[in-house]
Amino acid sequence: MASPKRRRTGSAKKSSAAKARSAKTVVSRPKPAAKKAVSKKATGTSGRAKSFAPQKARVKKPAARRKSTGFGRVRVPVDARLDLVFQKDYQAREVFDFLKVQSIRELEQFGPAEIIDRLTGPMQQTVLRIRKTLALVNRHLAKDEKFAQDFLREVSPGSVKRRTPQK
Questions:
Q1: What is the rounded distance in angstroms from the CA atom of residue 121 to the CA atom of residue 38?
Q2: Is 38 inside any structural domain?
Q3: What residues make up the domain containing 138?
Q4: Do residues 92 and 116 touch, judged by C-beta distance below 8 A?
Q5: Least-confidence region, from 2-6, 20-24, 94-98, 126-130
Q6: Dist. CA 122–CA 165, nearest whole Å
Q7: CA 154, 156, 157, 161 torsion-angle sign
Q8: How does pLDDT run across 58-116, given as a tens digit for each residue?
Q9: pTM above threshold 0.70
């Protein structure tokens, strides 16, 4: 079987004669003497001057996913209610009420040290109030006599009669 001849389309390569003709028609232009220094505002990151022609809108890339932490597949959604996840842990639910959080997403905003600081702050203030109140009525907690005496001196240096320890 004989194969039919195929015609070359315009996209075919130019012959060497056509190349020579096109090279002759190109007129060499003189190069400009020196380029002016381009201001930093007009240059991009590549150092070239920006063109003022309208540019194509850049396509925004989707947000990068966080690296896997190595825990595997998440078993509870981030918007799960804490009272359902911690149904049987009453003390944990009290902590969530104190922090005013209701979902895992809100809870994950806190670090462990921050939670402890927030919880222990009011307790420390309460214990200090107890110590001061006991000192005002001439009492003290175990091994806390020095605090009670110092507090009484601070509050009323001469008006309060201090009890001397009995032996």
A1: 60
A2: no
A3: 121-167
A4: no
A5: 20-24
A6: 32
A7: negative
A8: 777 776 666 667 888 889 999 999 999 999 999 999 999 999 999 999 999 999 999 99
A9: no
